[in-house]
């Protein structure tokens, strides 16, 4: 209800700077800013636009002198050059909150009304209006009568606000917080939709009781008008029946969209397609209802709305998920066997187990088959076995990686309220497979973490539980999805870290790794062919000799599986491919002697011989999640006083076994031919290099003992011998785990002899024949036997 100040016509040329020399204002005088069609009330803050030069000068002077101003309404709004006589006699003293110039150059004064004032007389001598005034603060006592008026007026004010189509909440709150009737009357009058003259009348009603009554009367009239208007609105609305209303709204929406330049034809066509897709998707009834509900929301939304894209993506997910079940063909067992043999060399026991599993599924397709879990080092064929199972069952195959999954939402999805939410990786896997009865491989189930964001293991349990997984609920989808026909297969590198409850659900099938000749077979039959195809080499163009393959297996790779082997073969073949492309006359043969040029120097050649050529180094055998490995224990002595120094990030148990080994050596010093005084003059340092191998557990005991014995007797250990075994303080050799993997690793490293605890003889049958044939086995009861067998006879003379 405030009108803008109009720019004045011919204002006398008085610039604000010239006001610096103005006479000082008398004590009861005040700078006056005349305004039009606007009443500032005490207790309210309002901006006033300044147009006339005189008003700008007044405002600038007030700001300069940090003075209050008097806001006074003109009697005639149209008067550009008001004289004192043209102004009301009563106005409001105000503090200047801000004085600002808008980007378009207009000036504004933000004022906070403080109290009423009455003009006593206008004074001359300033380029703006100045008047002597009488301030009129509100006189408000406390009486039940006043209190009653306050309550009544407050009730009315709130009622009036609530009758407005959109009741401003903060206004209601402000009204509730005003404590005195006079202030409430001012506040209400200020915001009420009444004429400026009526507002001026309220301002001029200094008596609080009279003022409250006046505002109350005005409000009562207002409420009556508002009520009537609401009533009319309601009646008109009721007159339109629901259908008409919808048509009307749709038309309005279309009109608005047109206004916004959003052509609705493209959108309509798009949504018609979505509707058809929903009808065709084969969704269960409740899912279809949900999809249609979302579609209706889309229809009502402009396609520029941020939410439009989100709902559209959600619908795409619902549409693209394979809800219906494809026909399941019975498993052909003979064919299944053929496929397994076709894809994999060896692995007879495992293939047999898989055939059994398939037979059970064939006989009881709806039954609860166990979940297979392949455990073994990388590259031994876990994933490719999973693919073969899918092929044998005539189903789609999909992989879901669980490595490093810490958050339940990665399995089960984020709620749609999150920005960028998506379904969890189970549902993503299903969509990728495009089939509800796919074979889903849950990779690296042993690397599942448990973080603060819920336990992904628990979510996975639900996925795998046949009692629950027919109504698996992904947070993003918000509707159940039936996973009961999915064939789950898990893979892991190690058993220990698979959460217990998950392990209980699964049938573990271990794949230990391949011997050198198995690798050779796999390479000859599968890997070379596959890499030739991958590198565009035709049959007969390149040949890799057996000797070359053996060399790669022996000296270029050291792994339980065949992944690196395949990579090295690929590298060798690519080299040949380049030569063919450059026009070399075929066929090209890659022999052992060519490898150094193609693949570089052998990586593992003679490592053992080199390392063990000095006293104090023993070759141990370690078990790791990626298969067995050899490991060197190095001991050296430095001048000191008998301390044992251990380095190489050893675990607690391994540190203890080093101490035990030292005690045993000290105990037997004389019989071993060691000068006991050596121990007093030296510190002994034991180091176990090889960063990647986990170094804990007691099984390096024998190797520690031998390294120390070798050091103190100054005799080297045979370079063809590796050892494993725990030791007791009394010199007994105790059994250890992982014998099969360790022995295979020893064979792969080209060693000839292994020293094992006698009580591990029971594991001998598990050791692959090839390794058995390659190695000499020395079974140890006591550490003395190790000394006997391991110290190099050639180094005897030196002692
Ligand atoms: N017995 C085998 N016969 C033929 N090929 C094999 C055999 N074992 C492994 N392979 C081949 O070796 C490669 C690596 O195997 P795969 O990817 O299945 O290993 P993985 O055990 O799943 O490893 P990771 O745990 O790292 O996933 C594949 O190309 C696979 O076909």
TrEMBL record:
**Annotated residues for binding of ATP:** 376-383
The Lon N-terminal domain sits at: 30-223
Which keywords does this Swiss-Prot/TrEMBL entry list?
Answer: ATP-binding, Cytoplasm, Hydrolase, Nucleotide-binding, Protease, Serine protease, Stress response
Reactions performed catalytically: Hydrolysis of proteins in presence of ATP
A GO BP annotation? protein quality control for misfolded or incompletely synthesized proteins
Subcellular location(s) per record: Cytoplasm
What role is this protein assigned? ATP-dependent serine protease that mediates the selective degradation of mutant and abnormal proteins as well as certain short-lived regulatory proteins. Required for cellular homeostasis and for survival from DNA damage and developmental changes induced by stress. Degrades polypeptides processively to yield small peptide fragments that are 5 to 10 amino acids long. Binds to DNA in a double-stranded, site-specific manner.
Description of how the protein assembles with itself and partners = Homohexamer. Organized in a ring with a central cavity.
Q: What is this protein called?
A: Lon protease
């Amino acid at each position: 209800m405030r009108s803008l100040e109009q720019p004045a016509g011919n204002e006398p040329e008085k610039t604000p700077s010239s006001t610096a020399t103005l006479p000082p204002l008398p004590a009861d005088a005040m700078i006056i800013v005349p305004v039009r069609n606007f009443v500032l009330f005490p207790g309210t803050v309002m901006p006033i636009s300044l147009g006339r030069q005189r008003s700008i000068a007044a405002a600038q002077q007030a700001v300069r002198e940090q003075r209050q101003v008097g806001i006074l309404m003109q009697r005639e709004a149209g008067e550009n050059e008001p004289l004192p006589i043209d102004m009301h006699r009563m106005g409001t003293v105000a503090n200047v909150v801000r004085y600002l110039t808008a980007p378009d150059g207009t000036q504004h004064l933000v004022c906070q009304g403080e109290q009423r004032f009455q003009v006593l007389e206008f004074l001359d001598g300033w380029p703006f209006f100045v008047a002597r005034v009488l301030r009129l603060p509100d006189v408000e006592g406390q009486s039940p009568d006043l209190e009653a008026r306050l309550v009544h007026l407050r009730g009315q004010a709130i009622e009036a606000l609530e009758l407005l189509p959109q009741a401003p909440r903060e206004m209601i709150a402000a009204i509730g917080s005003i404590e005195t009737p006079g202030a409430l009357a001012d506040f209400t009058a200020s915001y009420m939709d009444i004429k400026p003259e009526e507002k001026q009348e309220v301002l001029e009603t200094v008596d609080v009781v009279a003022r409250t009554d006046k505002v109350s009367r005005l409000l009562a009239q207002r409420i009556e008008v508002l009520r009537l208007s609401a009533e009319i609105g309601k009646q008109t609305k009721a007159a339109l029946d629901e259908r008409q209303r919808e048509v009307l709204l749709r038309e309005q929406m279309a009109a608005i969209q047109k206004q916004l330049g959003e052509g609705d034809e493209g959108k309509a066509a798009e949504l018609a397609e979505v509707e058809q897709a929903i009808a065709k998707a084969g969704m269960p009834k409740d899912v279809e209802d949900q999809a249609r509900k979302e579609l209706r929301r889309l229809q009502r939304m402009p396609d520029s709305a941020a939410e439009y894209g989100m709902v559209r993506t959600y619908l795409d997910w619902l549409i693209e998920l394979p809800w219906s079940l494809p026909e399941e063909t019975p498993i052909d067992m003979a064919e299944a066997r053929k496929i397994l043999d076709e894809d994999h060399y060896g692995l007879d026991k495992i293939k047999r187990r898989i055939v059994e599993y398939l037979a059970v599924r064939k006989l009881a397709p709806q039954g609860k088959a166990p979940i297979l879990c392949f455990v073994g080092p990388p590259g031994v064929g876990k994933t490719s076995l999973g693919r073969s199972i899918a092929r044998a069952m005539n189903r789609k195959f999909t992989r879901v990686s669980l490595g490093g999954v810490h958050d339940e939402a990665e399995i089960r999805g984020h709620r749609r309220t999150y920005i960028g939410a998506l379904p969890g990786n189970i549902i993503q896997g299903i969509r990728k497979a495009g089939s509800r009865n796919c074979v889903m491989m849950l990779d690296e189930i042993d690397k599942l973490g448990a973080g603060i964001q819920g336990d992904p293991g628990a979510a996975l349990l639900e996925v795998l539980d046949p009692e629950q997984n027919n109504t698996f609920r992904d947070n993003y989808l918000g509707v159940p999805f039936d996973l009961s026909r999915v064939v789950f297969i898990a893979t892991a590198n190690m058993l220990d870290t698979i959460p217990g409850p998950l392990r209980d659900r699964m049938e573990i099938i271990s794949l230990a790794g391949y011997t050198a000749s198995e690798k050779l077979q796999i390479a000859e039959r599968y890997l070379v062919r596959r890499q030739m195809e991958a590198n565009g080499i035709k049959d007969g163009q390149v040949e890799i000799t057996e000797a070359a393959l053996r060399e790669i297996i022996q000296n270029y790779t050291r792994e339980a599986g065949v992944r690196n082997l395949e990579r090295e073969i690929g590298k060798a073949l690519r080299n040949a491919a380049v030569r063919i492309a450059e026009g070399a006359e075929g066929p090209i043969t890659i022999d052992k002697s060519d490898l150094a040029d193609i693949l570089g120097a052998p990586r593992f050649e003679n490592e053992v011989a080199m390392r063990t050529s000095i006293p104090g180094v023993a070759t141990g055998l370690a078990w790791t999640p990626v298969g067995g490995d050899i490991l060197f224990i190095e001991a050296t002595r430095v001048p000191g006083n008998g301390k044992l120094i251990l380095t190489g990030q050893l675990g607690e148990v391994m540190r203890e076994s080093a101490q035990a080994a030292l005690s045993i050596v000290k105990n037997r010093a004389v019989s071993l031919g060691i000068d006991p005084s050596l121990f007093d003059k030296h510190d002994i340092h034991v180091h176990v290099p090889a960063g990647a191998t986990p170094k804990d557990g007691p099984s390096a005991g024998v190797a520690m003992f031998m390294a120390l014995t070798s050091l103190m007797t100054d005799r080297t250990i045979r370079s063809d011998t590796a050892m494993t075994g725990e030791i007791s303080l009394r010199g007994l050799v105790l059994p250890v785990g992982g014998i099969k993997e360790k022995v295979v690793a020893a064979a792969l490293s080209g060693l000839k002899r292994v020293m094992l605890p006698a009580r591990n003889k029971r594991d001998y049958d598990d050791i692959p024949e090839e390794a058995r044939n390659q190695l000499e086995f020395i079974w140890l009861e006591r550490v003395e036997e190790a000394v006997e067998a391991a110290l190099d006879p050639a180094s005897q003379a030196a002692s």
